[in-house]
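Risk register update: the risk of archive-format incompatibility is retired. Evidence:
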Amino acid sequence: MEWSIQEIARLTGTTSRTLRHYGEVGLLEPSRTGPNGQRFYDQEALVRLQRILLLRQFGLGLPVIAEVLGGEKDAVAALRGHLEMLERERVRIDRQAESIRTTIRKIEGGEPLMAEEILDGFDHTQYEQEVTERWGKDAYQQGDRWWRSLSDADKAAFKQQGLDVARDFGVAREAGEPADGAVAQDIARRQVEWLSLSSEASREYVIGLGEMYVADQRFGRYYAPEGADPTPYAEYVRDALKVYAEQNL
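Archived output:
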């Protein structure tokens, strides 16, 4: 079974131009090219594309992705590794979401806050080995030094800034503001500035992050009202970040 380049572009939300570029740089060759030049992809190519898109979501650039895929001989083993990463991230996001819900409930109810509850899920040191393996020791140490340099008040302010951005994205979508309009683009700017506080927010990283919001509904829930389907909100944020990144990064 095989799929045309147009079908793959539609299913992944990317463009035919992007898929052709992947082929030009040797990252994703079509399994067959028709007489009219149309490209087709088989199951093996789709599995490789899945891995490419996943690594893009983690903020890796194309040259690094080529190195990673070039060093992986067993596709199933590689996918198991990716799945394990996503499972760990899902658990962390769930813990953070529950921590934030608890904080909101206690603040609104005038209850005392417990540090263990507020900070549950925010222990970045548990990912030291993973970050070091993928991005190098310097990348981890830089982020670790930055986080440890913050006071408790600064850490709380950082988290609040992220929540404010998420809230404003949700409000903008509810108000019908276009993702490429001035309001949404100003919020996108704030989110990129927020991301830049802890790491370099490159174009590839920001676009990949937006795609990850859509791929995993747990991320989308940060932007959606309680009980609402998070997908449309995640797609709105993704589109706004993509426009901002392409125009400004």
